[in-house]
Design a protein that fits this description.
Elements: E1 2-3, E2 8-13, H1 21-30, H2 43-51, E3 61-63, E4 65-70, E5 73-78, E6 80-83, H3 94-102, E7 110-113, E8 126-127, H4 130-147, E9 151-157, H5 159-167, E10 171-181, H6 190-194, H7 199-214, E11 217-223, H8 229-245, H9 254-263, E12 268-275, E13 278-287, E14 306-314, H10 321-337, E15 341-346, E16 357-367, H11 370-395
Parallel strand pairs: 7-9, 14-15
Antiparallel strand pairs: 1-2, 2-4, 3-6, 4-5, 5-8, 6-7, 9-16, 10-15, 10-16, 11-12, 12-13, 13-14
């Protein structure tokens, strides 16, 4: 497919393995000058999803990586998947699919630009500049029309992606996640953090942590290449068991995590809960890679680094162990290591009690059928009003002391370095 503007060419590839990983990651790094490299959009991560059999046509994720070329230079790219279901996306459109079916129309296959099974906000349209980002999203719509697809969905996008999608005429949809953000001065330690909370929330957290301690549970953590093969194996045992206990097969295979261990170990932090020296539960956290400056060196002066709560599992039930493994241990680690943001994943209003605050996330949508597009647009307007009211209500329920302002999401470099114990 050729775009006449400055002789750009669109090439649609059938696998992430057909994209040069160095070129892809270079585009990804260019999307933010001060934030760490989002691990879930790294080429290694997407390639591992494919090569491990976790996100393939057999599991309902048929890759069509769309690339924008200017001569021999990769100017833009995105990870697009053809879907014959709506699972593993976390932006729910089952009602839309049902409406299509009731009118005798096919909703599937549809096109989704997202990271499979991963509701983490980040750049979806990788491009060198805003003009090329808009060209890329317009090319996506044209390709979907050419292929006769019902719809196109870009999930958990950045503000830059949203601007390009709006220019291309896509509809926006908002959801809410809960993220923890450190203040510019940071926290000395976890107790210092607790003192910023209201007495009720502080008391609740201390009670929850005491239950885990009284149960004889201790924690150890390891990062990167220090995570042993035995710990990776134990993690997957817990992860797999927890999925099966909820009646589902795990989305991600053991081979996928073996690839994480070998291709991007620096992005992983593992907490292991033990009782009497025997492991009983794990929590796996992703860490953004350090941003690189124009001269190719790590830029620590203006960096914003993020930790992502991702996967957890346990072999036995202990009251409040999930909160300790998935929130309190990672938050304490973030405070100690100068990590400014912790994202707790999709949904979960209960996270506010742990000082993870509401953040609006955005997806963009295009529907080929004019009547359905009009109906969805009206629905999204009503839904958007509801989300706005919900956010206002949540902001009135801040877990912080009344004397402290409700912290805004961290979107710019902090004014000063964080304190560490």
């Amino acid at each position: 497919m050729k775009n006449d503007s400055n002789d750009y060419v669109i090439r649609v590839l059938d696998s992430p393995l057909e994209v040069n990983g160095t070129d892809w990651n270079a585009l990804l790094a260019a999307q933010s000058a001060h934030e760490g490299l989002n691990p879930f959009m790294r080429h290694e991560y997407l390639a591992a999803l494919h090569s491990s059999g976790s996100a393939t046509p057999e599991t309902g994720w048929t890759p069509r990586f769309v690339t924008l070329w200017q001569g021999d230079t990769l100017a833009g790219a995105c990870a697009l998947y053809l879907k014959d279901h709506s699972y593993g996306e976390y932006v729910f459109d089952h009602a839309w699919a049902n409406a299509y079916q009731q009118h005798g129309l096919d909703y599937y296959p549809k096109a989704v630009v997202a990271v499979p099974f991963t509701p983490v906000p980040g750049a979806r349209l990788l491009a060198r500049n805003a003009t090329e980002r808009t060209l890329l999203v317009k090319a996506l719509v044209a390709w979907c029309e050419q292929e006769g697809l019902s719809s196109l969905h870009l999930l958990f996008t950045t503000d830059e992606d949203v601007a390009a999608c709006q220019e291309a005429g896509l509809m926006l949809r908002h959801t809410v996640q809960f993220h923890w953000t450190a203040p510019p001065s940071g926290y000395r330690d976890f107790d210092d953090f607790l003192m910023s909370l209201s007495q009720e929330k502080r008391k609740k957290i201390r009670q929850e942590r005491r239950k885990v301690l009284d149960a004889g549970i201790t924690f150890r953590w390891s990062q990167g290449t220090d995570i042993s093969p035995a710990d990776w194996g134990f993690f997957y045992q817990c992860y797999e068991r927890t999925y099966y206990e909820h009646g589902n097969a795990p989305y991600l295979s053991r081979d996928f995590f073996q690839r994480m261990q070998s291709t991007m170990p620096e992005n992983w932090l593992l907490f292991v809960a033990e009782r009497s020296g025997a492991p009983i539960a794990t929590s796996l956290i992703a860490i953004s890679a350090r941003p690189v400056s124009a001269n190719g060196q790590f830029d620590s002066k203006n960096e914003i680094r993020t930790a992502y709560g991702r996967y957890w599992g346990a072999l036995e039930r202990v009251d409040c162990l999930h909160f300790e493994a998935c929130y309190y241990q990672p938050l304490a680690w973030c405070m100690e290591h100068g990590i400014q943001r912790f994202e707790g994943g999709a949904q979960g209003e209960h996270k506010m009690a742990r000082a993870l605050l509401p953040v609006k996330t955005t997806s963009a949508h295009w529907l080929a059928h004019p009547a359905f597009a009009d109906a969805v647009e009206r629905y999204l307007a009503r839904e958007g009003e509801g989300i706005a009211n919900y956010m206002e209500d949540l902001e009135k329920r801040s877990p912080f002391k009344a004397s402290l302002a409700f912290p805004a999401p961290l979107t710019q470099p902090p004014n000063s370095k964080q304190h560490t114990p």
